[in-house]
Specification:
alpha/beta, 7-stranded mixed beta sheet, about 190 residues, 7 strands, Rossmann fold, single chain
Length: about 190
Amino acid sequence: MGPRRRNLLSYARGRTVELGSGTGLNLGHYPADLDELILTEPEAAMRTRLARRLRSSQLRARVLDASAEQLPFADETVDTVVSTLVLCTVDDPDPVLQEIGRVLRPRGRLLFLEHVRAESPRLAHWQDRLAGPWRRFAEGCHCNRATLELIQACGLALEDVQETSWRGMPPIVRPLITGVATKSDI
């Protein structure tokens, strides 16, 4: 996943907010010339690990206790929002996507790397059958979420989307998308 993260995060610009930063796996992949990097993480234990990893890095960033559903930023004040393996774990992605749209400036970008519902009917069937047990095992992850369609429905324009596979993972979470969605400038 490192090369995928590095490639995706190379598009980050200006004031950048990462949703659900977890333990900081993205830290080594951000460009050094960002105006500001804000790492949000609602879980206290994860924030502790994130802060520890941040201290040992060369990166300047702030860590905030914030959920993706209620970002503590004024309207249209963020240039880039980053979501890596976050939209599958929130209970309801619609309020999160609306919040992303609210904080992004016109022409601001959402950079995303998410596992998604399979296009294969057979694998999608297994994702549906195993969604409940997987959610309990993987701390709320919805392995069968149609995330790309949800991003489109919230009004962001897809610019660059690549479908790929997460090798070494169980088949129900292998289908991945990575890409960029942009807020209109109207």
